[in-house]
Amino acid sequence: MWHWLRNSEHDQVRFLLKLLAIVISGHVLLIGMVFFAQNYTIYHLDYTKTVTEATQQPVIFLPLHKRAPKKQTISKMTSTQQKVVPTTKKSSSKKQKQERKSAEIAEKTRFMEEKKSLPSKHKKKALPKKVKKQHKPTSKQEKPALKQEAPPRQREQPSPTPAPQEQPTVLSTEQELTTEHESLYIGQEEKFMIALQQALHDEICAQWQVPMGLSKDLVCQVSVLVNWQGVVQEVRIAQSSGVRMYDASARTATTTMKLPKIAWGKEFIITFKQ
Amino acid sequence: MMVFYKKCSTVMRHILTGFLFLSSSTSATIEPLPIEVHAQKTGAIKFAIVLITDNYHSNDDATLLDNLGYYLKKDLEFTKQFKVGGGSPHELFALKSNPSKQYLQELHQNGYEFALFIRQSDDSISIDWRLYDLDTCAMIKGQRYKKTGPLHHHGQSECTRIWAHSIADGVWPELAQVPGFFSTKIAYCKDIKDAHARAIKHIYIADYDGSYEQVLINTHTLNVAPRWNVDTAFPVLFYSEHTSVNVRLMMTTMEKKRQIVVNFDGLTMLPSFSYDGKRVAFCASRGDGVCDLYCYDQGNLKRLTQSQ
Predict the structure, then answer these.
(1) What pLDDT is attached to residue A107?
(2) Residues pairing with B222 in the sheet
(3) Contact assignment for A269 to B140 by CB distance below 8 Å
């Protein structure tokens, strides 16, 4: 196996080989960690929340090869809002263009009226230059001209019409976005976990016999660790109800339940309520 | 070459160990899956009563402890919250020495959640009990009682029953977080026919479950509406006795010593005591044919209602 090393017994080669071995093993380690991390992040699912929300929100079942998208955070929402703002600016600029066009038309008509009133020589000198500049401006020339023209118009019409018009458009886009985010995605992983929870819930309900006559407000949390052979390895009272009898009944239910195969090698926290 | 191979293998071994350690640490930080369950049916918890027989000096000792276990079993099973198990004769376990951890674990493997060990002291003048949580094999509580009351053969049965009730009262709060009720007595009146076939009423008392009834008042009159006072150390029973002229309020101790409490005209009955026992409310007609509520507070009698 190590014959290939005979030609490279030099110290530097040895060092390089060692380095290579360490680098390869490091990669293997990293890949292994990523594998474990990916496998165990499956169990971060709040079943109770999904069930309660499912009644109000649309449920989207994803195909096999797709994964459910992660929940949008507030920071993401703000970023989407920021994206929305330029669209509103565009819409406002379009309106401004329309206003400018109408203003230009009005100026034209005024100029035509003046032209009619003026003698014909003055018409030829004055008209073509102005009309050409107004009607066929290049794209490069238009932008600075608009920037220059905009401030005096605001002065002429001080009413804040554009701001209140923009707000509803932004809000509507926000609402659309939020409704999109509230929809509930159920992928294969989530489906698997819901099935697991349902199976365990049914089994515990069948096994648990609460002593009669106790208070209805008692709540007990039991942590159960199941090994890879399907045997309950550890039962721990995570949160006691304060009544030993009640805790004991919950403990007994967890030890006597028959676990489905999908529950092997996992840990659960079971909340027992009256 | 071999040195290099050894070094490589050592390095690889260390890396593998590190990898396994990291993988185990990542698996230990997993968030467990939350499940919420609501109760759908009721049932009893398995409870073991074990008699420790190392201090049996005579057959009486064996009988006493056996009866004690029997009454305890009866008390705990009355609640329907425990299923007390064991061997013969009263389905109780017997052990010749103090329990070991292995013995507790065996009981737990058989489905028992709690165990009560009862033992008689060496000098036979006291009885002690110890309550264990079998899951953790830890003692929850223990107590020793000195034997009191008539210990002759005839009275032993009643004594052991009372002792058993006392032990059950001590055990119960540890399991249910509420005070025990096993030593309480209920009082009631009962229709009796006298020698002349006339209907009279006697006052009886019995255990909390209605068993072991005893007659307390057996006069040839109508005795009705028994009421307890609130002093558990010195229990007194109040009742109303029909005489030829009125219905008077009477009281009696557990030793059947009777005394007149209120002897107004008309009827006087149904006294009810405050929690501190200093005030008492009762109803009385005082000869005018209409019943009203009165309160007796440290020597002062106050009329509470004005009926017409």
Answers:
(1) 66
(2) B201
(3) no
Taking CB atoms and an 8 Å limit, are B33 and A243 in contact across chains?
no
Phi and psi, residue B56, nearest 5°: -80, 115
Look up residue A260 and give its DSSP letter. P
Q: How far is CA B305 from CA B62, B218, B225, B284, B293, in A?
A: 60, 34, 21, 11, 6
Q: Residue A233 in contact with residue A226, Cβ under 8 Å?
A: yes
What pLDDT does residue B132 have? 94
Tell me which residue has tokens 């209602």: B305
pLDDT at residue A69 greater than cutoff 70: no
CB–CB of B114/B141 below 8 Å?
no
The reply to whether residue A212 touches residue B33, judged by beta carbons under 8 angstroms, is no
Q: CA-CA distance, B35 to A223, in Å (whole number)?
A: 10
Least CB-CB distance to B19: which of A9, A32, A268?
A32
Kindly tell me the sign of the dihedral angle through the C-alpha atoms of A142, A143, A145, A146: positive
Cα-atom radius of gyration of chain A, to the nearest Å? 37
Residue among B4, B29, B33 with most chain A CBs within 10 A, to mutate: B33
CA distance A165 to A210: 62
| ipTM of the prediction greater than 0.95, yes or no | no
Distance CA B172, CA B180 (A): 5
DSSP H helices in B79-201: 101-109, 156-176
Query: Is the peptide bond preceding residue B235 cis, with omega within 30 degrees of 0?
Result: no
Whether chain A has a CB inside 8 Å of the CB on B25: the answer is: no
pLDDT beyond 80 at B90: no
Token digits for B49?
A: 């009563």
B-chain CB neighbours of A32 within 8 Å are: 19, 22-23
CB B175 within 8 A of CB B149: no
Contacts of B199 (CB under 8 A, 6+ apart): B191, B192, B193
Q: Which residue of A has its CA nearest to B33?
A: A268
Which SS3 state, helix, strand or coil, does residue B54 take? coil
Interchain CB contacts (distance < 8 Å): A and B? 145
Q: Is B131 left (phi over 0), alpha (psi -120 to 50) or beta?
A: beta
CB of B171 closer than 8 Å to CB of B180: yes
β-bridge pairing B266-273 and B258-262: unpaired
Cβ within 8 Å, pair A244-B175: yes
Taking contacts as CB-CB distances below 8 angstroms, the residues of chain A near B133 are: 244, 248
Query: What percentage of chain B carries pLDDT values higher than 90?
Result: 33
Q: Give chain B positions within 8 Å (CB) of A25.
A: 11-12, 15
* DSSP 8-state symbol, B122: T
Among the listed ranges A39-48, A241-250, B151-160, B251-260, which one has the minimum average pLDDT value?
A39-48
CB contact at 8 A, B116 and B48: yes
Cα–Cα distance measured from residue A181 to residue A159, given in angstroms and rounded to the nearest whole number: 37
| B38–A245 CB contact, under 8 Å | no
